[in-house]
Amino acid sequence: MGFSTLSHLPRVSKTLATAFLCRNGPYSKTVVTRPLQQQQQQPSLTQRRMVHVEKHIESLGITLPPAAAPRANYNIVCQASGNMLYVSGHLPFQADGTLMTGRIDGKERDVDYGYQAARWAGLNIVATLQEQLGDLDRIEKIVKVFGIVQSSDDFKSQHLVMDGCSDVLMEIFGKEVGYHARSAIGTSTLPLDISVEVEAVVQLKPE
Protein backbone atom coordinates (compact mmCIF):
# COMPACT_ATOMS: atom_id res chain seq x y z
CA MET A 1 0.00 0.00 0.00
CA GLY A 2 1.37 3.44 -0.89
CA PHE A 3 0.44 6.95 0.18
CA SER A 4 -1.37 7.51 -3.13
CA THR A 5 -4.05 5.02 -2.15
CA LEU A 6 -5.08 7.03 0.91
CA SER A 7 -7.13 9.45 -1.20
CA HIS A 8 -9.49 6.63 -2.12
CA LEU A 9 -10.16 5.57 1.46
CA PRO A 10 -12.87 6.79 3.85
CA ARG A 11 -11.67 8.99 6.69
CA VAL A 12 -11.56 6.18 9.27
CA SER A 13 -9.71 3.89 6.85
CA LYS A 14 -7.21 6.65 6.11
CA THR A 15 -6.47 6.89 9.80
CA LEU A 16 -5.90 3.14 10.06
CA ALA A 17 -3.80 3.10 6.91
CA THR A 18 -1.70 6.00 8.17
CA ALA A 19 -1.20 4.20 11.47
CA PHE A 20 -0.01 1.13 9.53
CA LEU A 21 2.43 3.23 7.52
CA CYS A 22 3.64 4.97 10.66
CA ARG A 23 4.60 1.63 12.14
CA ASN A 24 6.01 0.02 8.99
CA GLY A 25 6.87 2.70 6.45
CA PRO A 26 10.05 4.72 5.96
CA TYR A 27 8.39 7.85 7.36
CA SER A 28 7.51 6.30 10.71
CA LYS A 29 9.74 8.55 12.82
CA THR A 30 8.48 11.73 11.21
CA VAL A 31 4.80 10.83 11.29
CA VAL A 32 4.68 9.28 14.74
CA THR A 33 6.54 11.94 16.68
CA ARG A 34 4.42 14.83 15.41
CA PRO A 35 1.07 13.78 16.95
CA LEU A 36 2.86 12.80 20.16
CA GLN A 37 4.37 16.26 20.40
CA GLN A 38 0.97 17.81 19.74
CA GLN A 39 -0.54 15.63 22.45
CA GLN A 40 2.12 16.70 24.93
CA GLN A 41 1.34 20.34 24.20
CA GLN A 42 -2.33 19.88 25.13
CA PRO A 43 -2.81 20.90 28.79
CA SER A 44 -4.53 18.45 31.10
CA LEU A 45 -7.90 19.23 32.69
CA THR A 46 -6.11 20.15 35.92
CA GLN A 47 -3.75 22.49 34.07
CA ARG A 48 -6.61 24.15 32.19
CA ARG A 49 -8.52 24.74 35.41
CA MET A 50 -6.41 27.60 36.68
CA VAL A 51 -7.59 29.48 39.75
CA HIS A 52 -8.45 32.67 37.91
CA VAL A 53 -11.29 33.81 40.20
CA GLU A 54 -9.23 33.59 43.38
CA LYS A 55 -6.45 35.59 41.73
CA HIS A 56 -8.99 38.16 40.57
CA ILE A 57 -10.34 38.48 44.12
CA GLU A 58 -6.81 39.21 45.32
CA SER A 59 -6.31 41.79 42.59
CA LEU A 60 -9.50 43.54 43.71
CA GLY A 61 -8.11 43.82 47.23
CA ILE A 62 -10.98 41.74 48.61
CA THR A 63 -10.43 39.45 51.58
CA LEU A 64 -13.14 36.83 51.95
CA PRO A 65 -14.51 36.30 55.45
CA PRO A 66 -14.21 32.82 56.97
CA ALA A 67 -16.91 30.47 55.70
CA ALA A 68 -19.67 30.56 58.31
CA ALA A 69 -21.10 27.47 60.00
CA PRO A 70 -24.88 26.90 60.19
CA ARG A 71 -26.57 28.74 63.06
CA ALA A 72 -29.52 26.36 63.48
CA ASN A 73 -30.53 22.69 63.22
CA TYR A 74 -29.24 22.03 59.71
CA ASN A 75 -25.83 20.87 58.62
CA ILE A 76 -25.80 21.66 54.92
CA VAL A 77 -24.88 25.15 53.76
CA CYS A 78 -24.93 23.96 50.13
CA GLN A 79 -27.11 21.24 48.65
CA ALA A 80 -26.07 19.79 45.29
CA SER A 81 -28.52 18.31 42.79
CA GLY A 82 -26.90 17.34 39.52
CA ASN A 83 -24.78 20.30 38.46
CA MET A 84 -26.93 22.76 40.45
CA LEU A 85 -25.88 24.01 43.88
CA TYR A 86 -28.46 25.49 46.25
CA VAL A 87 -26.86 27.80 48.80
CA SER A 88 -28.59 28.35 52.14
CA GLY A 89 -29.34 31.84 53.41
CA HIS A 90 -26.16 33.71 54.36
CA LEU A 91 -25.75 36.45 56.92
CA PRO A 92 -23.82 39.73 56.67
CA PHE A 93 -20.74 38.75 58.70
CA GLN A 94 -18.01 41.33 58.31
CA ALA A 95 -14.29 40.57 58.14
CA ASP A 96 -13.93 40.85 61.93
CA GLY A 97 -16.79 38.41 62.51
CA THR A 98 -19.36 40.97 63.62
CA LEU A 99 -22.86 40.97 62.15
CA MET A 100 -24.53 43.93 60.50
CA THR A 101 -27.83 44.20 62.31
CA GLY A 102 -30.89 46.40 62.58
CA ARG A 103 -33.86 47.38 60.50
CA ILE A 104 -33.29 49.35 57.32
CA ASP A 105 -35.62 52.32 57.60
CA GLY A 106 -33.88 54.96 55.48
CA LYS A 107 -32.97 56.95 58.59
CA GLU A 108 -30.96 55.24 61.32
CA ARG A 109 -30.10 52.42 58.94
CA ASP A 110 -30.09 53.90 55.46
CA VAL A 111 -29.82 52.37 51.99
CA ASP A 112 -26.02 52.55 52.05
CA TYR A 113 -25.90 50.59 55.32
CA GLY A 114 -28.18 47.96 53.81
CA TYR A 115 -26.09 47.92 50.63
CA GLN A 116 -22.96 47.14 52.66
CA ALA A 117 -24.82 44.44 54.58
CA ALA A 118 -25.93 42.80 51.33
CA ARG A 119 -22.38 43.05 50.00
CA TRP A 120 -21.05 41.23 53.05
CA ALA A 121 -23.74 38.58 52.70
CA GLY A 122 -22.61 38.09 49.10
CA LEU A 123 -18.97 37.78 50.17
CA ASN A 124 -19.98 35.18 52.74
CA ILE A 125 -21.67 33.20 49.96
CA VAL A 126 -18.48 33.35 47.90
CA ALA A 127 -16.47 32.20 50.94
CA THR A 128 -18.78 29.21 51.36
CA LEU A 129 -18.55 28.35 47.67
CA GLN A 130 -14.76 28.52 47.82
CA GLU A 131 -14.67 26.22 50.85
CA GLN A 132 -17.15 23.74 49.39
CA LEU A 133 -15.76 23.63 45.84
CA GLY A 134 -12.09 24.30 46.45
CA ASP A 135 -11.93 26.19 43.15
CA LEU A 136 -14.27 29.03 42.22
CA ASP A 137 -13.54 28.42 38.54
CA ARG A 138 -15.79 25.38 38.82
CA ILE A 139 -18.75 27.77 38.74
CA GLU A 140 -20.50 28.00 35.39
CA LYS A 141 -23.13 30.57 36.38
CA ILE A 142 -24.64 32.40 39.33
CA VAL A 143 -28.21 31.54 38.37
CA LYS A 144 -30.30 33.37 40.96
CA VAL A 145 -30.00 35.39 44.14
CA PHE A 146 -32.81 35.82 46.66
CA GLY A 147 -32.49 38.58 49.24
CA ILE A 148 -34.54 39.37 52.33
CA VAL A 149 -34.16 42.81 53.87
CA GLN A 150 -35.26 43.63 57.40
CA SER A 151 -36.98 46.93 56.79
CA SER A 152 -39.69 49.25 58.03
CA ASP A 153 -43.16 49.28 56.49
CA ASP A 154 -42.54 52.54 54.66
CA PHE A 155 -39.15 51.51 53.24
CA LYS A 156 -39.45 50.79 49.51
CA SER A 157 -35.84 50.43 48.34
CA GLN A 158 -35.07 46.78 49.07
CA HIS A 159 -33.89 46.42 45.46
CA LEU A 160 -31.23 49.08 46.01
CA VAL A 161 -30.06 47.32 49.17
CA MET A 162 -29.68 44.04 47.26
CA ASP A 163 -27.53 45.76 44.66
CA GLY A 164 -24.74 45.39 47.22
CA CYS A 165 -24.79 41.62 46.75
CA SER A 166 -25.34 41.69 42.99
CA ASP A 167 -22.56 44.21 42.44
CA VAL A 168 -19.93 42.25 44.36
CA LEU A 169 -20.84 38.97 42.63
CA MET A 170 -20.45 40.57 39.20
CA GLU A 171 -17.29 42.30 40.38
CA ILE A 172 -15.78 38.95 41.36
CA PHE A 173 -17.10 36.65 38.62
CA GLY A 174 -17.68 39.10 35.78
CA LYS A 175 -20.98 39.53 33.98
CA GLU A 176 -20.74 36.32 31.97
CA VAL A 177 -20.75 34.17 35.12
CA GLY A 178 -21.99 36.56 37.79
CA TYR A 179 -25.01 38.09 36.02
CA HIS A 180 -28.10 36.56 37.64
CA ALA A 181 -31.83 36.59 38.15
CA ARG A 182 -32.85 38.15 41.47
CA SER A 183 -35.65 38.73 43.93
CA ALA A 184 -35.63 41.18 46.83
CA ILE A 185 -38.30 41.41 49.51
CA GLY A 186 -38.74 43.21 52.80
CA THR A 187 -39.72 41.76 56.16
CA SER A 188 -40.30 43.19 59.62
CA THR A 189 -37.77 40.90 61.32
CA LEU A 190 -34.94 38.47 60.60
CA PRO A 191 -33.03 35.96 62.78
CA LEU A 192 -30.40 37.49 65.09
CA ASP A 193 -31.70 40.93 64.09
CA ILE A 194 -29.59 40.77 60.91
CA SER A 195 -30.24 43.46 58.35
CA VAL A 196 -30.07 41.20 55.29
CA GLU A 197 -30.16 37.49 54.48
CA VAL A 198 -29.21 36.19 51.03
CA GLU A 199 -29.44 32.77 49.39
CA ALA A 200 -28.30 31.72 45.92
CA VAL A 201 -28.59 29.10 43.19
CA VAL A 202 -25.37 28.26 41.34
CA GLN A 203 -24.70 26.14 38.25
CA LEU A 204 -21.46 24.15 38.18
CA LYS A 205 -19.37 23.23 35.17
CA PRO A 206 -19.61 19.58 34.11
CA GLU A 207 -16.74 17.46 35.38
UniProtKB/TrEMBL annotation:
Residues 59-194 form the Endoribonuclease L-PSP/chorismate mutase-like domain. Coiled coil: none annotated. InterPro entries: Endoribo_LPSP/chorism_mut-like. It comes from the Eukaryota. Pfam families: YjgF_endoribonc. CDD domains: YjgF_YER057c_UK114_like_1 (cd02199). This is Translation initiation inhibitor. It comes from Nitzschia inconspicua.
